[in-house]
Amino acid sequence: MVADSTIGNRPVDSRPARGRQDEAILREYSRPVAFYVWATALPWGFWFAAAYLSHLPVQSTGVLVSTLVLSLAGLFSPLAVVVALIRRSPRLRTDIVERLKWPRADRMPWVLTAVLLVPVSLMAAQGLSLLFGHGVDQFSLRGGFTFSTGLMPAWVTLIGAAIIEELSWHSYGTDTLVRKMRVFSASMLFTLIWALWHVPLSFIDGYYQNEVVESGVLAALNFPVSMIAFVLLMNWLYYRCGRSILVPVVFHASANMSAEIFMTEPDSKLIQTGILLVVSAVILVRERSLFFDRPAPSQTV
């Protein structure tokens, strides 16, 4: 249970990340099954259709446009589900709008951490890879992207996906799990759902996930394993910044762009996953209350 300090006879909540006010509003995020079923089923339908079109022998303008439209429909589907679930709840709408603001000035170091953590870990991984015979050319700027998304510029995909996804996952998706689960358990369940959510993208010719799968078994396995650290770190920053939705957006966008900036070799990405898992383990130990305390009684009503 959560440890409280006391002043006189009045208990004072000692948790820096999840306060009493947050726990009260979490009761309103009460549709986890509806959210995740629809937020997964709709993208799967759109993306498998896009995958079929992407493999047609003739890639006409009409086919390319249809593939792009279906891909975007899949990306925006979870956000549409959020809108449907909150449309009759003024309290949820107000809460989400408030969390679309930047965190307070005293939390800016956490925002900076969200910007730098993944790219710094990548450079550290590339540095360690030198010990195993890999070249220093990994630190050269790529000057392009390893994947294509048809008519959509790759950089728009990387930034846009981060924005749209986190407007869904951290406006409703995370809180609807944390409502009745420990943050650690919610993070692990979300990692599994999120990995499955990405599966259809691996069938769309030229897309990032498709390129990852075609890179080999280790690269394909590294993608879901890296999500474990990714989600834990993102949720840690999310709560450290008062449930600000913009912080996961920044973290996700930084991670997406850093993966494409350098001439990173596949082995370095494996090393990076190891580094981030170690960092995550340290944070889990240091932030035991945040990740492992049971939800407050108000959350389990």
Your description of this structure?
The chain is mainly α. It has helices at 20-26, 32-54, 61-86, 90-98, 108-129, 154-178, 183-198, 208-214, 217-240, 246-261, 266-286, 288-292; strands spanning 4-7, 10-13. It has one domain. The chain has a two-stranded antiparallel sheet with strand order 1-2. Helix 6 (154-178) packs antiparallel against helix 7 (183-198). It is globular.
In short:
The protein has helices at residues 20-26, 32-54, 61-86, 90-98, 108-129, 154-178, 183-198, 208-214, 217-240, 246-261, 266-286, 288-292, and strands at 4-7, 10-13.
Structure class: mainly alpha
Q: How many individual domains? A: 1
Radius of gyration over C-alpha positions, nearest whole angstrom: 20 Å
Number of strands: 2
Q: What is the global morphology? A: globular
Series of secondary-structure elements, N-terminal to C-terminal: EEHHHHHHHHHHHH
* Major sheet attributes: 2 strands, antiparallel
Tell me the β content.
Answer: under 5%
Q: Whole-Å distance between the termini?
A: 17 Å
- Separate helix tally: 12
